[in-house]
Amino acid sequence: MAAHVGASRTPQEVMEHYVSMYIHGNLGKACIPDTIPNRVTDHTCPSGGPLSPSLTTPLPPLDISVAEQQQLGYMPLRDDYEIEYDQDAETLISGLSVNYDDDDVEIELKRAHVDMYVRKLKERQRRKNIARDYNLVPAFLGKDKKEKEKTAKRKVTKEEKELRLKLRPLYQFMSCKEFDDLFENMHKEKMLRAKIRELQRYRRNGITKMEESAEYEAARHKREKRKENKNTAGSKRGKEDGKDSEFAAIENLPGFELLSDREKVLCSSVNLSPARYVTVKTIIIKDHLQKRQGIPSKSRLPSYLDKVLKKRILNFLTESGWISRDAS
């Protein structure tokens, strides 16, 4: 700028004039903001991305004792194990060598071997990350039980434990925090659904304020208690009436004393008199014995025996051992 102006101005004078007139002058005050925003764009990938620096950052070694390291075959300085996943993966490239006379097919074949080896290494590292994220090593050593008891926010029910076992295949697709969040959200959804059903029940019974719900719950509890006491008293009276009270419909019919307890239950459930049951049983067993001896016989079952009733009696006789399963 001083060369353009001419020899009448030195570079220092030109700079002072520019700063005073254009930066600190009226033009600078109108155009240049007081705080200049940072317009630098961060082009680095997020953690875990293809070019993320976290991929090359080694994980800290496991905090376990020397005896536990020997038990696992763990080498803390290398964060490695004596026996890794897919232990023979290195055999893919251990015998490879680049020769000057290799043709294109051989070069592509060697590249394919290297690519297979890299995939195996990634899978090996993925399994290590999952084991580290879900604390599988402390779980194997039995160290995580005390930590879980200390950090447990609430008591986990048996149904929730079974649900965790069913969702265990999702471990490899989600981090430990994501899985815990998913499980907590599912529990929260279950609690909200139960609360919604409770509020809907209040609304159906004409309750529109939470203050009225306490009185309603107390009255409902009393009703259920009275109903429970009534059922208990009824069951006691039924026991006092005797064991054969359930057979009251057939106990006075002829042939009742010939039946076993299971046959009494069957006749009572299908509403069949003991005499008719004995007749049907005799015919079925007789036909079965004749068939076993090779004597042809025509089944002459009574007309009151329909298909459903016949099937029930055949299944009962088969289970009781009176006839074989193939005959039924």
**Unreliable residue runs:** none
H/E element sequence:
HHHHEEHHHHHHHHH
Please report the number of helical segments.
13
Q: Into which percentage range does the β-strand content fall?
A: under 5%
The radius of gyration computed from the alpha-carbon positions, rounded to a whole number of angstroms, is 43 Å
Largest beta sheet, briefly? 2 strands, antiparallel
**Tally of individual domains:** 3
- End-to-end Cα distance: 114 Å
Oligomeric state as shown: single chain
The proportion of residues forming helix, as a percent range, comes to: 55-70%
| Alpha-beta content class | mainly alpha
Number of strands: 2
Rough outline:
elongated
Biggest sheet: strand arrangement: 1-2
Protein name: SANT domain-containing protein
Pfam families: TADA2A-like_3rd, Tri-helical_Ada2b_C
Region (Disordered): 213-243
GO molecular function, one term: transcription coactivator activity
Explain this structure to me?
- This protein has 328 residues and is an all-alpha fold.
- It folds into three domains: 40-144, no CATH class; 154-233, no CATH class; 256-320, no CATH class.
- Helix content is 57%, strand content 1%.
- It is built from 13 helices and two strands, in the order H-H-H-H-E-E-H-H-H-H-H-H-H-H-H.
- It has helices at residues 2-5, 11-23, 26-31, 66-72, 104-133, 136-141, 144-151, 158-166, 176-204, 210-240, 261-270, 274-292, 307-320; strands at residues 74-75, 80-81.
- It has a two-stranded antiparallel ribbon with strand order 1-2.
- It is elongated.
- The N and C termini lie far apart (114 Å).
- 2% of the residues are buried.
- The mean pLDDT is 80.
